[in-house]
């Protein structure tokens, strides 16, 4: 499904509207890029960005790693076009494909932001993490920023309430609840503990470097 259809917006509005949809969006992506730079044990020459979208995270990464080149994978052609406009000329290769099944080249780092929750089955995600581990080789780094609810039901409910309040500040309470209800039918939010377990099972060593409510940044070292 195209992002514009999923979010019920015009694609040209994405960069502005995503901030009204996701709490602490800027802080989350800034932390993801900084975490990648901090955790790298070797020079980062190549970064594979899964579900690159408009290139918001990739843009932050290349601004911190001046020699890094990005291979961005996305099945939404409109998003790839926008990423191409954002990223510095000559430093990005954009691939129109599904990142779950697309070939992953040997790389120093893998990134994903608000992307991996589109994977429905845990076994599919674990398989992707295994392919990422193989693509990274020893010492490579993966960073993902996404929605990962707490396992504890009351904490998860509090996080959902905070997300609804964030949405309601722009769209009103009724529409905010409608967004969350619609997204819950199409997105698959893996609890944080379960996500960490999937990464460990694939051979990655994960650490949580940031968490606010339902959202987290995870660094996995191969």
What's this, in brief?
With 222 residues, the protein is of the alpha/beta class. The chain has helices spanning 3-7, 14-21, 25-39, 56-64, 77-86, 122-136, 153-171, 173-186, 192-201; strands spanning 46-50, 69-74, 92-96, 109-113, 141-147, 205-212, 215-221. The longest helix has 19 residues, at 153-171.
Keywords:
222 residues, alpha/beta, Rossmann fold, seven-stranded mixed beta sheet, 9 helices, 7 strands, 47% helix, 19% strand, globular
Question: Could you characterize what this model shows?
Answer:
- This protein is α/β, with parallel strands linked by helices.
- The protein has a domain at 3-146: Vaccinia Virus protein VP39 (Rossmann fold).
- It is 47% helix and 19% strand.
- It has 9 helices and 7 strands.
- The chain has helices at 3-7, 14-21, 25-39, 56-64, 77-86, 122-136, 153-171, 173-186, 192-201, and strands spanning 46-50, 69-74, 92-96, 109-113, 141-147, 205-212, 215-221.
- The chain has a 7-stranded mixed beta sheet with strand order 3-2-1-4-5-7-6, sandwiched between helices.
- Strand 2 (69-74), helix 5 (77-86) and strand 3 form a beta-alpha-beta unit.
- The chain is globular and about 45 Å long.
- The model has no long low-confidence stretch (mean pLDDT 94).
């Amino acid at each position: 499904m195209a992002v514009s259809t999923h979010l019920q917006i015009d694609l040209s509005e994405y960069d502005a509207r995503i901030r009204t949809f996701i709490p602490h969006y800027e802080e989350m992506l800034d932390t993801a890029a900084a975490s990648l730079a901090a955790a790298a044990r070797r020079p980062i020459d190549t970064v594979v960005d899964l579900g690159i979208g408009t290139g918001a995270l990739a843009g932050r990464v290349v601004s911190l790693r001046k020699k890094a080149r990005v291979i961005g994978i996305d099945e939404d052609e409109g998003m790839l076009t926008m990423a191409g406009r954002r990223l510095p000329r000559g430093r990005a290769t954009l691939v129109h494909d599904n990142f779950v099944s697309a070939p992953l080249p040997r790389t120093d780092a893998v990134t994903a932001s608000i992307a991996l929750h589109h994977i429905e089955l845990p076994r599919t995600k674990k398989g992707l993490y295994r392919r990422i581990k193989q693509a990274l080789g020893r010492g490579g780094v993966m960073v993902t920023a996404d929605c990962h609810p707490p396992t504890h039901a009351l904490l998860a409910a509090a996080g959902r309430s905070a997300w609804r309040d964030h949405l309601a500040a722009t769209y009103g309470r009724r529409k905010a609840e409608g967004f969350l209800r619609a997204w819950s039918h199409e997105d698959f939010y893996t609890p944080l503990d379960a996500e960490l377990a999937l990464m460990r099972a694939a051979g990655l060593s994960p650490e949580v470097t940031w968490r606010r409510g339902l959202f987290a940044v995870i660094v996995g070292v191969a």
